[in-house]
Structure formats: structure tokens, C-alpha cells
Amino acid sequence: QLQVVESGGGLVQPGGSLRLSCAASGRTFSSHAMGWFRQAPGKEREFVAAINNSGGSTTYADSVKGRFTISRNNAKNTVYLQMNNLKPEDTAVYYCNLRDYVFFKAGWGQGTQVTVSS
């Protein structure tokens, strides 16, 4: 079972940047693809970005492509999400999890709040 702790959220102005971190434990972190997801108020949780176990392959939602970058450090059991040129519509609680959380029936952490507002 994977345990995660997300951090790095906050309040930022439009056009600003934030870097989210996700510290993982409990499973063999380096064996699993990881993902970032987000849930805005009144909306369902959605996929943001994913990275394979080695870090050599990434995928992004169209809404964040070119602005967000996912990366990982397997030595530190940590996955990151660098978010640039943030927009108000990026406001959400951001979660990290196994990319294939449905298959593994993985639960969710508490997430980290990102608010983009002037």
C-alpha cells in the first residue's frame, strides 16, 4: 500500500509558478508509475500528469501541456509537479497517487490546495 504526503500548494497570482512535491512510502516507489490529479470545487477529480517508473516517459492533460512538468527522484521517493503560467482555472486540490490507482485500489492522500487568484 502506498502512502503519500503532498505539499507545496498555496496562493499565487495568475502567471505565477508553484512546485508541488509528493513524498511516498509503503510500496516499492521506483516500480510504479505515478500521477498528479486535481479536483476543483464542484467538479470531479481529473488527471493532470503522469510519469513512468523510471522517469523517462511523461503524459499530460491537454489543459496543462506546455505549462506543467512532472518529474521524480526515485532515490528520494518523491514526485514533483512544476506548474508555470498558472491560470485561475488551475485552482484545485492537487493529489498524487499511483497512475493506475484504480487497478491497485489505492486510496488518496489529503492533497494540497492551489489557489490562483489576483
List the SSEs and their pairings.
Elements: E1 3-7, E2 10-12, E3 18-25, E4 34-39, E5 46-51, E6 58-60, E7 68-73, E8 78-83, E9 92-98, H1 101-104, E10 112-116
Parallel strand pairs: 2-10
Antiparallel strand pairs: 1-3, 3-8, 4-5, 4-9, 5-6, 7-8, 9-10
Account of the 3D structure:
With 118 residues, this protein is mainly beta. Helices cover 3% and strands 47% of the residues. It contains 1 helix and 10 strands; from the N terminus they run E-E-E-E-E-E-E-E-E-H-E. It has one helix at 101-104; strands spanning 3-7, 10-12, 18-25, 34-39, 46-51, 58-60, 68-73, 78-83, 92-98, 112-116. The chain has a 6-stranded mixed beta sheet, with no helix packed on it. The termini are far apart.
Short description:
The chain has about 120 residues and is mostly beta strands. The protein has one helix and ten strands, in the order βββββββββαβ.
